[in-house]
Amino acid sequence: MKISIIGTGYVGIVQGACFADTGNSVICMDIDKKKIHNLKKGIIPIYEPGLEEVVKRNVKDGRLVFSTNLKFAVEKSQVIFLCLPTPQSEDGSADLTHVMEVSKEIAGHLNEAKIVVSKSTVPVGTIEKMRQIFENSGKYNVQVVSNPEFLKEGSALQDSLRPDRIIIGTSDKKTAEVMTELYEPFVRTGNPIIVMDEKSAELTKYAANSFLAMKITFMNDLANLCEKVGADVEWIRKGIGSDPRIGKNFLFAGIGYGGSCFPKDVKALIRTSANNAHPLRILEAVDRINEDQKKVIFTKLKKHFAGKLKGKTIAVWGIAFKPQTDDIRDAPSSVLISHLLNEGVTVQVHDPVAMPNAKKIYGTQLHYSKSAYAALKDADALVVVTEWNEFRKLDLRSMKTFMKTPVIFDGRNIYDPKEVQDAGFIYYGIGRKSGKE
Ligand code: NAD
């Protein structure tokens, strides 16, 4: 099939590569000239394990090309996927400017009937608005489909090659058949392709992200209670996670969810619910609690240093919003870092892959260390923000020699408090019994 992907970001490049890998002819289009120029030279714009190899193989075999020309991408394809940003507007709703503007442009370039698919996360009713744009242009029949994306950064390629499910929102039987044909190679193990109406598909995406955000937030709030009553959230996680109705995933307490999706999607669903006279109060609480949770480590730091943070040196391990990605959009690290900088703290950071992105935001305000241990030099404390695997095993004896004072704030509960304390460190976790509060 001839496909074009409009918006070659985290979602677009991965999906484009996967569709090419199953034998389709794919044009990945973007307005960012530098990104397309680099992709043409084989430079992949994001860190995503395994992606480079798939992109290069398909470029070499001629199934994947890159372009900045929307007209070319539209004219040459039967199915057009929009993988455009839908960032948060000031009032919390999803900003649909990119999706709507590009839909209008596509309508102007139509040369035959097409299928236009939104992989962008869009609120209920957006597909209908897009359909009206194409109907008003009146030239050719355009079927508009909601096909929300569920890939996770860090495992995006595997998620796309072997998705848990595919959601196709269309009321048109023929369109559903074309979409099913396109996705069949990815679900050969029997995972479902679920065809539903457009509105249900749009809402499914928000429901999934909001539910996961709620699960994390429940554990974070419970962890804070654990500190008050002297319980350990890690035991509770194990205790409840073994119940299959609850499940083991997304029960890890930490410093709040972040990233380019959960915060904005929770806020957008809150807006949708309020606009439809049915405020989802449970999500309002989730959003509020999460904002507070991002400050938890800073509060602990401030208490530890008796309010005197000015002039201290703090090592921060991890800037990315989660491991295996270089994405720092809306990462909890940003809340901690900005509080520390405001207090006049010297911040020494290390992240295995996210430092180039951090430099674009923080410039010379941070000290960037080549290794995790280099960031500890003369530090008054270490804060672990992102649970990269390489941070999991500590050489506590060496660390003590690098640091000015042996204090660890474990924002992801990845260490055994007793082991760390036995080595002479002061340990703070999130809702841990033997750590300090
Ligand atoms: P992104 O910011 O990484 O990529 C978007 C790309 O679109 C950028 O390269 C940008 O240059 C390009 N673009 C902007 N305007 C354009 C235009 N007019 N024409 C062509 N290209 C244009 O965004 P992303 O993370 O890939 O997310 C895209 C959508 O997918 C969002 O709605 C997001 O919520 C959703 N989503 C993201 C993820 C994720 O993990 N990143 C997962 C599931 C769903």
Could you walk me through the main structural features you see in this protein, from its secondary elements to its overall organization?
The structure is a single chain. By secondary structure, this protein is of the alpha/beta class. The chain has three domains: 2-196, 3-Layer(aba) Sandwich (Rossmann fold); 206-288, N-(1-d-carboxylethyl)-l-norvaline Dehydrogenase, domain 2, CATH 1.10.1040; 294-428, 3-Layer(aba) Sandwich (Rossmann fold), CATH 3.40.50.720. The protein is 43% helix and 14% strand. It contains 17 helices and 14 strands. The protein has helices at residues 10-21, 33-40, 51-60, 70-75, 97-109, 126-137, 156-161, 173-183, 198-229, 233-241, 262-275, 281-293, 296-304, 332-342, 355-362, 396-402, 417-422, and strands at residues 2-6, 25-29, 64-67, 79-82, 114-118, 142-146, 166-169, 193-196, 313-317, 346-350, 367-368, 381-384, 407-410, 426-428. The strands form three sheets. A six-stranded parallel sheet has the order 3-2-1-4-5-6, sandwiched between helices. A six-stranded parallel sheet has the order 11-10-9-12-13-14. It has a two-stranded parallel sheet with strand order 7-8. Helix 1 (10-21) crosses helix 3 (51-60) and helix 5 (97-109) runs parallel beside helix 6. The longest helix is centred in the middle third of the chain and has 32 residues, at 198-229. The chain is globular. The protein starts with a strand and ends in a 9-residue tail after the last strand. The model has no long low-confidence stretch (mean pLDDT 97). Nicotinamide-adenine-dinucleotide is lined by residues 6-12, 29-32, 35, 83-86, 98, 102, 119-121, 149, 151, 153, 260-261.
